[in-house]
Specification:
By secondary structure, this protein is mainly α. The chain has helices at about 5-20, 40-59. The longest helix is centred in the C-terminal third of the chain and has 18 residues, at about 40-59.
């Protein structure tokens, strides 16, 4: 989620995460808005997602 909009996104993401049956993690992408349109933001979101996936695969 975008690090610049935590006050907006947290209330939206937390109920959705609570309904998921798999483990979840909400990690802010520093400096990113909710659409990750800032230069480098989408790449940071992809990196954070990949790191999370790799940790879960290792068990």
């Amino acid at each position: 989620m975008g690090g610049r909009e935590l006050n907006v996104l947290s209330p939206l993401n937390e109920p959705a995460a609570a309904r998921m049956t798999a483990g979840t993690a909400t990690v802010p992408a520093p400096g990113a808005g909710h659409q990750a349109a800032e230069p480098g933001a989408l790449e940071e979101v992809a990196r954070l997602s990949g790191d999370s996936f790799a940790r879960r695969m290792k068990g």
